[in-house]
Amino acid sequence: MKLAQVLFSQGFGTRRECEGLIASGHVTLAGRVIDDPYVDVDTDGLVFGVRGERWPYHARALILMNKPAGHECSQKPRHHPSVYGLLPPPLRRRDVQTIGRLDEDTTGLLLFTDDGALIHRLTSPKRHVPKVYEAACRHPVGDEQVQRLLAGVTLLDDPVPVRAAAAVATGEGADGLHGLRLTLTEGKYHQVKRMVAAAGNRVERLHRSAFGALVLPDELGPGQWRWLDDAAAISPAA
Fold first, then answer.
1. Which of 13, 59, 78, 212 is an S-S bond match for 17, by CB 3.0 to 4.6 Å?
2. What pTM does this model have?
3. Which domain holds residue 33?
């Protein structure tokens, strides 16, 4: 692939802008400035530099973020900053989309990709991809509430009961709130909060810790992101 085409495919601007970046000496390969936009490069394992910043080549973008509170999963947010603003411009130009959404006050594991087929596979109700949530509840989480969540609760606008794939009380935290780890395989609007409310409790704080086989790394701080190299890291069925 021509170097200018590589930059264009990775979101560094229009074709002409990418050609200009290279011709102006802003692009490096293996630490060496390359000023020929039309040089052929092998994209297998390719890492290039743009204005001193290292960029790995990815035919499809797949990003893991630790979403902070106070951010909306929308490109046109209404009341809070957008999670897209936490990504660098090249990724935004690639038109990455979130794989599902988290509420503005919910934190934790959030995925982005420009692969529409992958978004469909991971969000389709037929796939039953599990997501794990850590809820901090106002009231103690008793065995009766856990059993109700496992058996199924009825939400106000849906007559069909929804069930948790797993539910475990995790004890009282230092803040006096009561922990509940909930695993869901659906993605209804405000589902965790509404299920917990239907079981007689209230979610005060919510964090997603896992998506499929992928667990949020402890070392990834709020607002930080990293590349994922393989969709199989999310779900073996993907």
1. 13
2. 0.91
3. 3-56
